[in-house]
Design brief:
Elements: E1 6-10, H1 14-26, E2 31-35, H2 43-51, E3 56-57, H3 62-66, H4 73-79, H5 85-94, E4 99-101, E5 106-109, H6 115-127, E6 131-133, E7 140-144, E8 147-151, E9 156-159, E10 161-164, H7 176-179, E11 185-190, E12 194-196, E13 209-217, E14 223-230, E15 234-236, H8 238-246, H9 248-253, E16 257-263, H10 270-284, H11 299-308, H12 322-333, E17 335-340, E18 342-343, E19 351-355, E20 360-361, E21 366-367, E22 373-375, H13 389-404
Parallel strand pairs: 1-2, 1-10, 2-6, 10-22
Antiparallel strand pairs: 3-5, 4-5, 7-8, 8-9, 11-19, 12-15, 12-18, 13-14, 13-16, 14-15, 16-17, 20-21
Helix pairs in contact: 1-6, 1-13, 10-12
């Protein structure tokens, strides 16, 4: 293998920079060029995690780590053998980006800003002499002998190997050029999104968070646990985002019109809550229900559930009739809401779908269809739940792709 190959990386996002730096780590003499169609790089990194960049997740067991990917679990189980959470932490900290693990296992820069990650990538790319071409989108690619011709609107380039890191595409048209090369494309659709509940009274409680809930999609096996956030348009938070990821294709088939059941008390069962309320009635029966909230939720949400259960705020616990008693338990454990539509966040848009993993050699991230063509990041049919998992998949696939271009 020649020691002066020219490597093109198409896409100046997280996977693109990581792949380019991986190439230079293993093959310092290779010429590496990143092509970015917009006028700035790493824009998704900039706003990810609320501007803090959730670099990865403190899940170190490979099997457990892989289980957080609705699409790509088995593929990544093999890939994580080469580069996983432990290596990610070492990679960033060895380059001056100190990390910290929060109580929910999400790992962020200690600086609490995504700019630390961006600065690291930019500085490292300069040190490694990686060329970055802005406003240079690649619209077509041709295999020519052992190399590739790449075409932008204005220019033609020749490279020996190519790594595609163009990210998730909201429409299948963005993947057409790869399909024309012979790749199977899984139609893209939103993976992480929040639930819209137009004009539902719950929206008046926007900002309310319940830390431990269980949310089910009625009529399916879809279920997720975690914090739930009430928004001015409906519901969000990790429980909802997980549900949207695991149910991406099912919910799309439903036209994003479905019902959910919320257990506001995590996974508590009716018998447990019944015993608790009976104990309250016995020991604190003279207290008004509105003033004695025994559950881990805000008083605003508690009053909302009382109203929904048609329980007067003035009555005492001992005055609670059987009908109201049962209705209250049902609304605490099986609170039903109609969902009509979704909300995705443009820059943090995550897709299910992309280049089929059946076309990819997991050991190299190389196309089985077009030798010399590699893939990394969300362009592949891989997506994780919220919590740093999508970035981890990007680092892993990009590292392997970069490492393999000279093999």
């Amino acid at each position: 293998m020649k020691d002066d190959l020219k490597i093109a990386v198409i896409g100046g996002g997280a996977a693109g920079f990581f792949a380019a730096l991986s190439v230079k780590e293993f093959y310092p003499n290779y010429q590496v060029t990143i092509f970015e169609k917009s006028n700035k790089v790493l824009s998704k990194v900039k706003i990810s995690g609320g501007g803090r960049c959730n670099v990865t997740n403190a899940t170190f067991d490979i099997k457990e780590l892989s289980s957080n990917y609705p699409r790509g679990e088995n593929f990544l189980k093999k890939a994580f053998g080469q580069f996983n959470t432990k290596e990610t932490i070492e990679w960033f900290e060895n380059r001056g980006v100190l990390l910290e693990t929060l109580s929910d296992n999400c790992i962020f820069p200690k600086s609490n800003t995504s700019q630390s990650v961006i600065d690291c990538f930019i500085n490292q790319s300069k040190i490694k002499d990686i060329e970055v071409l802005l406003k240079t989108g690649i619209i077509r690619m041709e295999k020519v002998g052992d190399g590739f011709h790449l075409f932008s609107q204005e220019n033609q380039f020749y490279f020996d190997k190519v790594i595609v890191t163009t990210g998730g595409q909201p429409k299948i048209t963005g993947l057409k050029w790869l399909e024309e090369l012979g790749h199977s494309i899984i139609p893209p659709l939103p993976s992480l999104f929040t639930f819209n509940m137009p004009k539902n009274p719950i929206c008046e409680l926007m900002g309310n968070v319940v830390e431990n809930t269980t949310v089910k999609v009625e009529g399916t096996k879809l279920i997720a646990k975690g914090p739930l956030l009430v928004t001015h348009w409906g519901m969000s938070g990790p429980a909802v985002l997980k549900l949207s990821a695991w149910g991406a294709r099912i919910l799309e088939e439903k036209g994003y019109n479905f019902s959910i059941l919320v257990n506001w008390l995590d996974d508590k069962k009716a018998e447990e809550v019944q015993d608790l309320i009976e104990k309250i009635i016995k020991e604190n029966g003279d207290k008004k229900v509105v003033n004695y909230n025994p559950f881990p939720m805000t008083n605003r949400l508690w009053c909302f559930i009382l109203d929904k259960s048609i329980i007067s705020r003035d009555i005492k616990w001992k005055e609670l009739g059987k009908k109201a008693f049962n209705k209250l338990i049902n609304n605490l454990l099986n609170d039903r809401y109609e969902v009509s539509g979704k909300t995705t966040f443009k820059e943090e848009f995550v897709t299910a779908g992309g280049v089929s993993l059946t076309n990819i050699n997991v050991q190299k991230m190389e196309s089985k269809v077009v030798p010399g063509l590699f893939f990394a990041g969300e362009i592949l049919d891989i997506d994780g739940i919220t919590g740093g998992f999508n970035f981890q998949a990007a680092w892993t696939t990009a590292y392997i792709a970069g490492k393999s271009v000279g093999v």
